[in-house]
């Protein structure tokens, strides 16, 4: 009976599902159709694309490293530590997921700008100014990407078997040793998946970057910003740049496919 029910597909559900599928699939197909394949190699190896791609890769990687070093401990705190207001902290961690990126950029300016809450001390004491610099790009990307890592790692921690950690503690292992040698290896797939998602989100960041770091070629102009600029002067270049980001997204999805399949099973 269950097999028969599974084979029945109500038309009222199938049609909206097909519309949703077309809505999601047709735009990338349109990008592929309109790609100037004849001039693609020349455009891909142009100095402009190379500079933007190199800057994007470096900044996204640095942002991911920052997120790993700080986000993994934060995820552990949310999953394992008994702290007051944990639900509120978790809600605050996920705010960048729903916050408009431009608003995030404004918030970063108010905090890390030269006259910001923290930025004034960074500038007065150390001469460090983050806005409109490459470091500012890294900060903006880390801000919007970290929730992806924290959520993934927290989920992995909640799903991990704690008996091994308890056994290690019983044998006299310190909390830090237990985390390094028992907990971290057990949640490595979750950390890897979160890191990949974090990196992909950082690579595609636009709103917070242009608001906090500006758009200076060779210094803060990442791939998304290059797409935005190229649309005004050279639409074909914008298509090529968009194609590169699309390919990166596909690679990320393929790399995480096995993990998602195991989770769905």
Automatic annotation (TrEMBL):
Where is the protein situated, by its record's location annotation?
A: Cell membrane
Segments spanning the bilayer are 12-33, 53-79, 91-112, 132-153, 182-202, 237-256
The entry's cellular-component GO terms read: plasma membrane
The UniProt keyword set, sorted, is: Cell membrane, Membrane, Molybdenum, Transmembrane, Transmembrane helix, Transport
Q: What is its main location?
A: membrane
Recall the GO molecular function terms of this protein's record.
Answer: molybdate ion transmembrane transporter activity
InterPro entries associated with the record: MetI-like (IPR000515), MetI-like_sf (IPR035906), ModB_ABC (IPR011867), NifC_ABC_porter (IPR006469)
**PROSITE patterns documented for this protein:** ABC_TM1 (PS50928)
Q: How does it sit in the membrane?
A: Multi-pass membrane protein
Coiled-coil blocks? none
Source domain of life is Bacteria
Tell whether Transport is among the UniProt keywords: yes
Q: Which residues form the ABC transmembrane type-1 domain?
A: 53-256
Is Cell membrane set as a keyword in this record?
A: yes
Entry similarity comment = Belongs to the binding-protein-dependent transport system permease family. CysTW subfamily.
- What does this chain do? Part of the binding-protein-dependent transport system for molybdenum; probably responsible for the translocation of the substrate across the membrane.
Q: What is this protein called?
A: Molybdenum transport system permease
